[in-house]
Structure formats: C-alpha cells, structure tokens
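Tokens as discussed.
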C-alpha cells in the first residue's frame, strides 16, 4: 500500500477544444451503504462511503452539428442511445445551464457492466459533463459540474469527484474523505444479468416491513476510522451494505459468490451497491489475482477482475 491516488485539479481548456476530448471515468463501489426509510419523493436517505475503483469507461467528445452518441464494448447494441441515455441527458443539462448549443459527437467505450451496482451509467453521465465542458469551453468548476450532475442521478456527483467520499441526502451530496493515501486491492465479481436499482430498494422496504431485514447499519464512523488505520483486515471488518439482504433475496445465488470469495481468501466480500456485482477486499495485489482466478474457476460469476482504489473521478486524458 504505497503508491496511491491523490486529488488534483487537471488543466482544462477554457476556450473549447477543436480536437477530440477524451475522458476516463471509473466505476464506484460503496464501502458503507446505510439506507434510511423511503422519503416522500420515493428516494431513500443514504449515509454512504463511495469509493472509485480502477475499472474505467472512456468517452470521447468531438465537434458536431447535432448531439449524437455511439458506443462500443459492454452493452453495445443493448443500451438505448437516444435522449433516455444518461450521457445525452448530461450533455443537454450542461448546455442548458451554460446557454451553449448541445452540439457534439460522443463516443463511449464501455467496460463497466450495466445494471451491476457499479454506477456505470452514472459514470458515463459524469464523463459527458467533463468532456462537453472541455469541448465547449464552458469553464465549469468540479463543484459546478457536480451540481448539474445531481439532476441526472444520485451517484453522478460522486463520479465527477472520484476518490473516496461521504455521500448523504439521496447520495448526491458528496464530501471527500481526507485520509493518508492508501491503495486498496479489490476483486470485482461480475454477474450474468443485472438488477434494477428501484427493485432492490423496493425489496429492502418490503423486507423491512416484514421485519425480515437485518438491523440497519449504524453511522459511517467505524468505516472512516478503519480507512484511517490503513490496515485491510480492519477495513474488512467495517464494510457493510444495507441493500445486500435485498439483493440476496432477489438473487439468492449471490450467497454462493460471497462464500466462494471468502473461501478463496478474501478478507471480506459484499454486494456492491444494489448488486448483483460482489466485491471482495484482498490483502494485496497477488492475493487479489488469486481470488479472481478462484472465483472464475468456481464458475460462480461471469467474470472476476481485480481493481485498485481509490482512483480519480471523470478526467480528461
Ligand atoms: O438517482 P437515480 O436515478 O440513480 O436512482 C435510481 C433509483 O434508485 C430511484 O428511482 C430510486 O428508486 C432508487 N433510489 C432510492 N434512494 C436513493 C437512490 C436511489 O430509492 N437514495
């Protein structure tokens, strides 16, 4: 645990770019996901610790006469590329806020699986904000972009910042966790098929109404203290996700994934966000490789990848 990411503001063009602008954006996991009761607006009050991991999508923005989106990689041919796509919604929102014409040719290279609990769609929206800001020279600060991001989805502001951060409200209020740089080693077990986030929250409400859900997580204090100790065994004991019981109820096979990861030597395993991806904390990089191979050999997931965290949020590369 030596080399690690530290937050920095990169140079962003202020006058707009004539050439292509390429943005890299990470996936997120939640080290702690505390879910409160449903609010009158249907969202749940969260207290979460977001963590950006080195599993990236890439969005390239070029000048164009209209707004278009093309894509390759995971989900190509499946994902709608029209105005319902979060990338297009984000580009339009930035144009509206800054009074520029929403003209760009956007191309997405996708690796983050869909409906996986890794906030892939939200990540792409964050990438679109950063890319179009650079392409159009709209000169937004990260805080400006995060405010627009909150209109697109609860996880989008975090993907604008990256790193490790506390999320409150419906997740859209983000404040960075300042800790001495540490690199954590994760294994990401990608499932076949996704889970719809609203269905997982609804299942948690149902389980809670039946008093069939485990007790809700407490505050994020233990998790934050564990991060400061920089010891993976301590962090392992502090990971938690209130949505896990709901994801397991909808997808009971996830219990086998969690068991297989622990049997392979993971210090801990949890469902990521609303699932169905499971993430495991490994002691170091070589343990992470071994756990990923063991998960793949056990045949309990579609694919197991290693990823370090924390990493930067959406950035021009
Ligand atoms: O904010 P976002 O559009 O990503 O949320 C997707 C869905 O997840 C919401 O429509 C809601 O059903 C659920 N959700 C929730 N409470 C949150 C965040 C999301 O119930 N804090």
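Sequence:
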């Amino acid at each position: 645990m030596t080399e690690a990411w530290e937050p920095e503001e990169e140079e962003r063009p202020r006058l707009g770019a004539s050439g292509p602008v390429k943005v890299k954006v990470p996936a997120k996991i939640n080290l702690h996901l505390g879910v409160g009761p449903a609010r009158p607006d249907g969202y749940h009050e969260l207290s979460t610790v977001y963590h950006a991991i080195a599993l990236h999508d890439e969005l390239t923005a070029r000048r164009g006469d209209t707004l278009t989106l093309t894509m390759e990689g995971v989900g190509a041919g499946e994902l709608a590329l029209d105005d319902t796509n979060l990338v297009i919604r984000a580009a339009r929102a930035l144009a509206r806020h800054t009074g520029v014409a929403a003209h760009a040719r956007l191309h997405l290279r996708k690796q983050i699986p869909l409906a996986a609990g890794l906030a892939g769609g939200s990540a792409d929206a964050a990438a679109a904000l950063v890319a179009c800001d650079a392409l159009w020279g709209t000169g937004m600060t990260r805080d400006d972009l995060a405010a627009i991001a909150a209109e697109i989805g609860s996880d989008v502001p975090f993907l604008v910042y990256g790193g490790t951060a506390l999320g409150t409200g419906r997740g859209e209020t983000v404040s960075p966790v300042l800790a001495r740089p540490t690199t954590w080693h994760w294994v990401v077990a990608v499932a076949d098929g996704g889970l719809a986030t609203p269905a997982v929250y609804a299942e948690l409400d149902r389980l809670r109404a039946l008093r069939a859900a485990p007790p809700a997580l407490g505050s994020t204090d233990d998790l934050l203290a564990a991060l400061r100790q920089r010891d993976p065994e301590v962090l392992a004991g502090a990971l938690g996700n209130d949505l896990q019981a709901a994801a397991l109820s909808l997808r009971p096979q996830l219990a086998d994934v969690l068991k297989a990861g622990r049997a392979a030597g993971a210090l801990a395993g949890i469902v990521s966000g609303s699932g169905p991806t499971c993430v495991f904390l490994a002691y170091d990089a070589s343990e992470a490789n071994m756990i990923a191979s063991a998960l793949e050999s056990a045949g309990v997931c579609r694919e197991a990848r290693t990823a370090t965290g924390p990493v930067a949020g959406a950035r021009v590369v």
